[in-house]
Amino acid sequence: MKLVHLVKHLREYILHDTGGHRIEWKDITEDSDEVVMLRWSNEELTAYINEAIRQVYRRILPVHGYFPEFDIPVLAGQSDYVVDPRILRILSARLLTEDTNLCPVDLEQLDYKTNGRWRNHEGTPSNFMVDYTTGALRLYRTPEVDDTLSLLVNRLPLKEFSWKLKNDSAELREEFLIPMLDYAAFMAYSKDEPNTLDPNAADRRRVSFEREFPFTSAYSDVRKRRSTRQCTRYGGL
């Protein structure tokens, strides 16, 4: 479904904000004088849709795979790297040249197994640690040669919608798109202006969205199984 169709559904069937009879709302931009006829500009609704899509991705993790955008160039002598902020969860990691799968490990476990000397260990990396709060990824052991780390990930959208490209299509499956608009409506009704703020309507839309995309859903169970998957070996630790 294209962005223009998502905004149309949100504007005409949920928010009922079309500007009046014979108003071509699709041609109104936030810089035009006619924008005052709308309670929400098309650009605002696009931003709300982007956030709604992000919420869906975080809750049900609908997209996973290997994506070249997330490959990490590994440099000899360097163990610390930055994870792309669009990555929600790293499911597995593989060194392409060495043809080696790396196992996830947490810092406390690594520190215990190596008696705190893991920083001085060099060789072919066998494990990785990720701090999703800071976006840092650390390899153990410190690599001795250059390589490429390929990641199997759950991710956010690779790009966001822009009203300037209103004919771009959503990546999500069709069945998720209309229910997703409840979150966009929640944000629209939460806009703190006299003609837009409606806490009751906002709450109804939020509840409807959370009913459709709960963190405790079957999709979340899949997420838990993926995110807690562990290797049975620890690379000689």
What's the number of structural domains? 2
Mean pLDDT: 90
Rg value: 23 Å
Query: What is the makeup of the main sheet?
Result: 8 strands, mixed
- Considering DSSP H and I runs of 4 or more, what fraction of the residues is helical? 25-40%
Distance between the termini: 49 Å
How many strands?
8
Tally of helical segments:
6
Quaternary structure state of the chains depicted: single chain
Q: Which geometry do the CA atoms define?
A: elongated
| SSE order, one letter for each helix or strand | HHEEEEEHEEEHHH
Low-confidence stretches: 217-229, 232-236
Would you tell me the structural class of the helices and strands?
A: alpha+beta
Proportion of β residues?
Answer: 15-25%
Tell me about this structure:
Helices cover 33% and strands 18% of the residues. It has 237 residues and is of the alpha+beta class. The chain folds into two domains: 3-62 and 158-225, no CATH class; 68-155, no CATH class. Strands 1, 2, 3, 4, 5, 6, 7 and 8 form an eight-stranded mixed β-sheet that branches. Helix 2 (42-60) crosses helix 4. It is elongated and about 70 Å long. Residues 217-229 and 232-236 have low confidence and may be disordered.
